[in-house]
Amino acid sequence: MAQSVAIWLGIRGMGQFIGGAINLALNVEDSKTGKVGYTTYLVLIGIQCAGLPIALLLSPPQNVIRDDGTQVEWIKRTTWLVEGKAVWRLVRTRRILLLIPVFIVGQWGSTYQGNYFATYFSVRSRALGSFLTAVAGISGDLLTGLALDFKPWRRSTRARVVWLWLVALILSLWIWQTTNQVMYGRKNPHLDWKTHGFGRGFAVYILWSFASESLQTYLYWSMGTLDDGVGTLARTTGLLRSFESVGTTFSLVTSATKWKYLNTLILAFVFFVSQIPFTTTAAWLVPDQPFKQREDAEVVVASDAEVESVASPHGDRQDTDSSESTVLGDERLKEQVEAYKPPTNPLV
Questions:
Q1: Please, are residues 141 and 210 in contact by the beta-carbon 8 Å criterion?
Q2: Helix, strand, or coil here: 241?
Q3: Mean pLDDT by 10 residues, the chain (348 residues)
Q4: How would you class 123 by CB atoms within 10 Å of its CB: exposed for 0-12, middle for 13-18, buried for 19 or more?
Q5: From residue 347, how far is each of 15, 78, 136, 286, 303 by CA, in Å?
Q6: Which end of the chain is less congested by CB atoms within 10 angstroms, N or C?
Q7: What pTM value is reported for the model?
Q8: For residues 224 and 233, is the Cβ–Cβ distance under 8 A?
């Protein structure tokens, strides 16, 4: 599962990879600090505009058939009320509550990193950085995906080991970045790849992209360990992106103030440290198999039953006894959920 998440995130990073290569080719001779040329913006905007007609070529989920002949699971019909109740129930589960802090602050430091890079580095150095951060990010996605799918270890062990590795890596980068910022705040350098000391300030920025994407892969994978239901996976992914957007919004607000870069760095550093106990606890709660966590099983049963009650493939409304849905530990109910297979959708 982790490798599938990693491949998706890696493909998402290919846009930055292509854009970074174009940016570098157009600005390779510009050793000054400041903004890139308008040609760069026009080329990248043109590529982005081409994405819409290309996206229309994607097949709808009901028409997708995998190599083994199976179809993609999807929720054909639901209601705002059903989804709202399911999301609210999901938010109140223990593991989601523990992960909300890292959803909010996990990418908080990216705003500072962007300001840092734009202030101290030349145009062509930033163009090189935009290319290499894509390479580093895709590498982080794929390597983390491989580690999380390392079969000789149990899933719970993988969750703990990879999380501890990420904590050590990100804390090390924050310490490194703090020493750079203290020095650059005093000297206000203009760094080009021919400048002495360029590697020290440039490398930490590239490694930050590796760590940031690795953390993204870990969090998406962690969401997938809640259960095997497609509905729950979609809702948890939406929650991750929503809380992440909240954190990004407030990080942009703080960066728009007259605070010094060192202050915004310290704030992001403190926020990351503050969420470590909560995310570590959540990592220790990752089960070896779905439905091991009692509170998560309640979400699976209740939400899926409600969706099925409004989305029966034959238009029949299926009644689900609410008391039965919430009896955690009912082995018969667990067997029904595990044996459930979505209806086969007719090919169009």
A1: no
A2: helix
A3: 80 82 78 66 80 84 81 74 86 89 90 90 89 93 92 91 96 95 90 89 94 93 76 82 89 85 92 95 86 38 39 39 35 44 40
A4: buried
A5: 32, 21, 40, 37, 27
A6: C
A7: 0.75
A8: yes
